[in-house]
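[[Sequence with tokens]]
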Amino acid sequence: MTQARLARFVRLAIIGGVSYAGMAVAGSTAQVTDEVGAACVINDPLNAIGTTAEMAVDGITYTRSHRPDAPGPLELPIGSQAGVAGCGVGQGYRFGSGLYDTTGPLGGTPVGHSDLVGHVLPTQVPNGIHTRLYARAFAVESPCNGKRVMMVSDDHAFPAGLLRQEIMAKISADPVLSAFYGSENVMISSTHTHAAPGGYGEPGVLPQLPNGTPQAAVDVYKILQGSVFSVTHFDADNFRIVSDGIVQAIRRAHANLEANPQADPIRMSVGELLNANRSRNPLAYRQNAPSERHRYMDASGNEIDVDKRFLQLSFVRGNGSAVGVLNWFGVHPTAMGNHNRLISSDTKGSASLGFEKLMGTLYHPDGEGGGNGMDNFVAAFAQSGEGDAMTELFALDADAQGRDAPGQGVPYRYRFGTNDPFEFDEEGFALGERKAVAAYGTKQLSQALKQFGQGSPLAGPVDYRLFYVDMSAVTVTDPAVLNENEFPELPAALYADSPKRTCKAGSGLAFTAGAANGLGALSSGYTCQDIAPVPYFDDARNRYNGMFNGQGYLAVYKGNTPAVLPFDGVATSQFLAPILCAAKASNPDFSCQGEKPVLAEFPAELAPLQIMRIGNLAILGVPWEVTTMAARRLRQSVLETLAPIGVDTVVIAGISNAYLNYMTTREEYSAQLYEGASTVHGPWQLAAAMQEFRRLAQTMVKGQPAPEGGTQTFSKGDPSPITVDLPALFGAVLSDARAVYTQGSTVDVTWQAGYPGNDPKTMSSYLYVERRTPEGTWETVATDKDPELVFLWSWSQSPALTLAHVVDSSKAKAIWTIPANTPAGVYRIRHEGVYRLLAAQNPTPYTGVSRTFLVAGTASACP
């Protein structure tokens, strides 16, 4: 396809590619800067993955029974515009966007920093960068009432109460920000990538050691814990990087709003993204009442057991200047896999970076063109209700012969429909499943491009409420909520609790079993009381490729190689369940946990419940991973409450302001699969959350302050240790580039390096691919934020030097996969790093440069 035809294609795709149930698009000035690149995304063959019944990889068919998505009914605006007097459609909003780097240090537990978090098993020590992590912020103000909100989407697994506390303290101490922003009108949401370092206050697996514990004891404890769990203790360096980065993104969004006093429309579009997510737990979903499930059927007559709604806000000024997009789509960003060792923003971050590249976004530090209030396009692919949604489209499909018993079905390594390295002895195993990230990031990006600038302008005032609820002690008495959470066609035993109350937080046995996008050691589905409405146990044990039976082994990793011990998760769970049920029955704190065999107490924390209103849209900040049906009930309940004041649409901003594990429906809880076991406050947690959100929404309807909630304070841990290097010829090229390459091939260059954790290169890069211009200068074409350029760091570990926080024989490696649209020319790769010989000295910068090399051949139109 020629570039001219590509450009015409993208104009048609973006203008007419999606139906929005009557949403007007007149007056939209949205344009994609790189029209050819946008056409490449929309027309990318990766979008076709999962659209047919047959799935083949490298010519081998792995299933013929996949069920592609069909269009279905969308949860659209209800059509009410009541209560918008004085804040009508024509007035618009003031808005601004900002982004900032939140990429933490490499090295993990061996050098006193955090491992990657989210998968928990096995250990994932970060030793490189696939893509950088960013916080993306949007400020919105209503001219009619002067109120404003600040929404942040950050590329990490979870937010944390400690992290939010620190951010709010920094805002309060800022004389500019504190005049506009406080606890109620700032929302911090995580994308939920499982390939970001932790240690910034998220819940741990094992207890924290007390502050002041000798560093040697801390190191040993961390290393032992890190050899089993991919969760580590408080990491002061990463905590500072993440909190500072989020505040800097907020500052930039605020400055951008202040530099643009005019009010312009914010357009909301509601689309349907098919074949980009699927339910990872159909056994739990089918416990919901038939009458409820039948409300959500697609055009092929199949149940829609995972939300396909893609809701997007487009921020474009009246003069055509594009400020950004903020969208919500519920799916786990876990495509990099639980064997990955690279920091990555996964599918949602890949989509963000892709959109920003098409728009020419700048990633400049302050003082070098950043933070000056000028428009700089920001694309946030935020999280929604993803509790039971995964990108592994083929994980639960039968094999090519139609078999799905344990050991059959689609092999686990092909669950994305890609051929990424998956076994530990394969080259690239520790670099994650980057093809899968590209595929499912492309699907979300393509949808965002189609909806860019589409939809109707939001109308109405800005408003906000937040309060903290002790979810361990809520009694559900609201008749409307009780009615929405009880179904007469289901067994009465499900609803026999009196009173219906929540419990002290406890994780169930199946928490250790994991889910289809990350198996654990034990097995799921064992309960203290068999009252699940639909039989599921035989399917869990004998179908779906053994996904509910645990991984079948225990593994401890040394480097990239696991030591594997066979382990029968089914037999172990069957033995443990009755013991845990008996212990729970005699424990008054957990006696109301119903069917759950309680394995361990979950860290206690108040639940921040938040509502932000931008005209007719309400955004619910929830601290849980909410399953599909639970999210539907919660949205509908709040929508009914807010409709009288003109709210016609509700979206859930998942995993916001804290992380308190999962939230299922009462019916899903009864099966005690992974999500039910992780619903820590018991079977009535959803009903309690609906009741408390209704209380919060009613104060917004009445113009009253938020209900009085609880308060809590979190404590930081000790400073991170300083790691130093042994003397070396830093920056020396150890393995150089070849003389000539062609598009599609890979360039590898290795340098003698210093420990990169001594300089995280915030708003910068460890690597630069540069092209020589006709004038003889060098221009940057890729940095370590770009997925085609991987930064890899390695070092020679010895126990004595590790405990002394000394790095020896450190190497930095660049792996550049040359995109197909790379112009022919002369290139080089530059590495920027630091070394530190003494803890008392500041790091010293160094530079290493590869030989120049030629990229020969004809560039294609698309990457």
Q: What stands out?
A: The chain has two domains: 3-465+608-702, 724-856. The chain is about 20% helix and 25% strand. Residues 724-856 form a domain with the Immunoglobulin-like fold (CATH 2.60.40.2300).
